[in-house]
Amino acid sequence: MIKNTTQKWEIGQVVRVGFVSNLKVLDIKALDGIPDTYSLEGKDGAIYEFTPHYGLNKITEGNGKMAGKWQTAKERRQAAINRMKGGAA
Fold first, then answer.
1. Quick check: 28 and 38 in contact, CB under 8 A?
2. What is the rounded average pLDDT of the residues 58-77?
3. 22 with 43: CB under 8 angstroms?
4. Per the count of CB atoms within 10 A, which of 62, 71, 73, 89 is most buried?
5. Collapsed DSSP state (helix, strand, coil) of residue 81
6. Res. 69: pLDDT tops 80
7. Is 0.85 surpassed by the pTM of this model?
8. What gap in Å lies between CA 62 and CA 89, rounded to an integer?
9. Average pLDDT over residues 6-22
10. How far apart are CA 37 and CA 2, in angstroms?
11. Higher pLDDT, 1 or 44
12. To the nearest 10°, the Cα dihedral for 76, 77, 80, 86?
């Protein structure tokens, strides 16, 4: 759970991530070994996934179609581990 902020990172609250504002918190997932992952919904209906220190990813467009290239938090974690080991992402 994000604690060092004036925003309330709780389900149903509206937050801002970087320059993207008016994101509603839909879900909070706690994964092993990495910060919590937040599912967010934009004003236009687009779905985002945010993990502190890993960034914000657009999962679906406002029309429900999958956004271009994206990774889940678990895939980002594995890619980071691979980079640290000197392997490919």
1. yes
2. 65
3. yes
4. 73
5. helix
6. no
7. no
8. 29
9. 91
10. 10
11. 44
12. -120
Show contacts of 73-79: CB within 8 Å, 24+ apart. Answer: 73/29, 73/31, 73/34, 73/37, 73/49, 74/31, 76/51, 77/31, 77/33, 77/34
Q: Say how many C-beta atoms besides its own lie within 10 A of residue 52's C-beta.
A: 15
Which residue type does 11 have?
I
* Alpha-carbon span 61 to 70, nearest angstrom: 12
* CA 79/CA 44 separation, integer angstroms: 30
Burial of residue 48 (CB within 10 Å: 0-12, 13-18, 19+) is buried
Q: Average pLDDT of 65-87?
A: 67
Instruction: Enumerate residues 6+ apart whose C-beta is below 8 A from 36.
Output: 1, 2, 28, 29, 30, 51, 52
Q: Judge whether 84 and 77 are in contact, CB under 8 Å.
A: no
